[in-house]
Design brief:
Layout (H helix, E strand, L loop, with lengths): L4 H33 L7 H29 L3 H23 L39 E3 L9 E3 L54
């Protein structure tokens, strides 16, 4: 059966339109690619404005995600108190390494921050002295603990010393060893949040 000329023309035109559509799409994509790599792109203020907008949006997203992560990692007051007394015990151990003894009760924990005019003092050993998470000062007394260690604790949630909820440091924290002494930097020269680093004094200086 012979196909009519009209039918042939319709099919040919349909194919031609399809082919033209493909060619137009190709030229459009090619032009877009050329525009991306075109040197003139970097001289267009709109390009930099778009980059700034993208950076702001990405920064805001990262800030929100980080803030949520920090909140999830936030520890309870008792855990913070235990961490604080451990840090104080380690600072007291470093104080003793330099001076030969712990601060006396009268000097208290303030000797870790301000020079008590004791020979060998190489602090400050902490940046500042804060209260425990319940707003109560940490209790300190020299020579009142076991094995010659000082008494150091947080009064806990009830804010009363000598009760079961008192929080004490790990006794091993009072003896930080000597590995930290290489490159020791006092707290006033350290950035906030930096762990106390290892002293310029040789191990032989320990009494």
């Amino acid at each position: 059966m012979r196909v009519s000329v009209k039918t042939d023309v319709v099919k040919w035109r349909a194919k031609r339109r399809a082919l033209n559509g493909i060619l137009r799409e190709y030229e459009q994509k090619k032009a877009e690619l050329q525009a991306v790599v075109s040197p003139t792109l970097f001289r267009n203020p709109k390009f930099y404005f778009g980059v700034i907008i993208v950076l702001v949006l990405v920064g805001a997203s990262l800030f929100t995600a980080t803030d949520k992560a920090v909140r999830r990692l936030d520890v309870s007051p008792p855990m913070r108190a235990l961490r604080n007394v451990d840090v104080l015990a380690e600072a007291l151990g470093r104080y003793r390494f330099h001076t030969g003894c712990f601060p006396d009760t009268g000097q208290g924990l303030a000797a870790l921050v301000r020079d008590p005019r004791v020979p060998g003092w190489d602090g400050p050993y902490i940046r500042f002295l804060r209260n425990d998470p319940w707003g109560t000062p940490f209790v300190y007394a020299c020579g009142a603990g076991t094995n010659g260690l000082p008494t150091l604790f947080s009064c806990g949630p009830d804010k009363t010393p000598g009760t079961p909820d008192d929080l004490h440091p790990d006794p091993a924290r009072f003896d930080p060893g000597t590995a930290w002494t290489n490159g020791w930097v006092s707290a006033d020269k350290r950035l906030p949040g930096v762990v106390v680093l290892p002293s310029k004094r040789p191990a032989a200086a320990k009494k």
